[in-house]
Amino acid sequence: MFACLTRCALVYINMQRHPSFFAPTPANLPGSAPSVDRPFMNPFGYEISNIAYSIVCKHEGFSSPFGGSTGPTGWVAPGIVMLYVISFLLFGCFTPGSILCMFALSILLSLCIIVLIHATAQRMLPGSSAGRIAALLYALCPQELMSLLYPHQTDFNVYTFWFILIAYLFLRMATSRTTRDACLFALAAGVGTLFLPVMVFPVAVCLGVYAAQNRNRFSALIRQVSVCTVIIAVVVAPYIGYQKYRTGRWFFVKSNARFEIALGNNPEFNGVLVYDLFQNHHPGSNKEEFAAYRSLGEIPYIQDRFNRFAANFKPKTFLILTAKRFLYFFFILKPYIAPERFQTWRLIAEYIGYAIPGLTLLLYLLLRHRTMNWQDYFIYAYIFSYSLPYLCAGIMYRYAYPTSTLTTILLAALLSTMGSATRANNAARPAPAV
Questions:
Q1: CA 247, 248, 251: angle at the middle one, nearest 5?
Q2: Which of 78, 96, 122, 161 has its CB 3.0 to 4.6 Å from that of 109, i.e. a possible disulfide?
Q3: Segments in 248-343 forming alpha helices (H)
């Protein structure tokens, strides 16, 4: 209840701070925007909502992520687009109702995430207080609360939900070793990949850890891994085939991975996707880039920008940028918009809050490295495999938000252990003399 009320209050504050976002004027809607020769990006969903608008209101299917009529697209993963499609079908395109629908979904998923964190912590540390502590910590998680204070971050709870759900179902499968739990894990992995394609790397880690844990049960291992692989393929393959039919090219769920590599390694910036970078080099914000995207078509445009990156590729520069991206992903907040637009006290709080998950990983490793079990190592592998694609391309601070779910569990484990040790020491002390 506390978590629900807190999140509702944050959305209310958001509405008070950004009234024009929650009640857009006709001038801010795609239908009235002169987007033939320049991009149109509504802050409610950006490319995602533009594609949903094309599906629901223009009846053009997956197309035109930057406004206008620029043809078929695979720029955005389909899962999140379909949530916007549902909100548009229920409440109309870019109406206050459709916007509030997505925020209500964000709050609902946030509460589900808390439940999953509690269940995951209890599975890892049965009989301890870690589950309750982890749920409380995430109810107050700075990254989670930050996502509800800004109107443009509505969809990140969706990604966080799939991140923790897949981890929880894997741990359940690893404990039970049943085909039923393997099927549930695979189904979540397949659907989650349609929302966030980088989840294919954590899923691969899950299957690798499961193989290592069950190498002595070879026949059962082969059967269950095969079942998982088939289910994931059955879930993901139809969309890949659909986009091959529409665009004429094969790609894995999203078409723009190579563009993101080129953009994130632009020599003008430090590997971080900031406002100026989009203004200068992104077809959603730059008129010249939009014109090139429209004239070339999506796939040739992406290939052209990637070819420019490849032609100027310097391994040393790439490694330096990757190291910077690592720091920005785990420890250092790099706001999308210049810091001077924020109140100083809030910016300081956000810098501290953003660093907590990365610092938790370091602290846990420092204090528990001699007693870590396979579940601890799994969490580290799961988090770093998720971060790997971003470390090679470009990041925004919010890309790291999903990792706070598992780092919250690690922090809860530390606090639970410290509490147990304190109680044991107090019990062992001799009673004071009377």
A1: 75
A2: 161
A3: 257-264, 275-281, 287-296, 298-311, 315-330
The pair phi, psi for residue 63, each rounded to 5°, is -160, 165
Q: Nearest Cα to 116, choosing from 186, 172, 165?
A: 165
pLDDT number for residue 1:
78
Contacts 24+ apart (CB under 8 A), 313-317: 317/265, 317/267
Mean pLDDT of 91-112: 93
Single out the residue of 20, 72, 12, 66 nearest to residue 39, CA to CA: 66
Are 275 and 48 contacting, i.e. CB atoms less than 8 angstroms apart? Answer: no
What's the pTM value of the predicted model, to 2 decimals?
Answer: 0.94
Contact 7, 110 (CB under 8 A): yes
Q: Positive or negative CA dihedral for 127, 128, 133, 138?
A: negative
Tens digits of per-residue pLDDT, 183-218? 999 999 999 999 999 999 999 999 999 999 998 888
Among 362, 434, 338, 354, smallest CA distance to 398 is for 354
For residue 214, the SS3 value is coil
Is the pLDDT at 341 greater than 60? The verdict is: no
| Other CB atoms within 10 Å distance of the CB of residue 288 | 11
Place of tokens 């720029």: 75
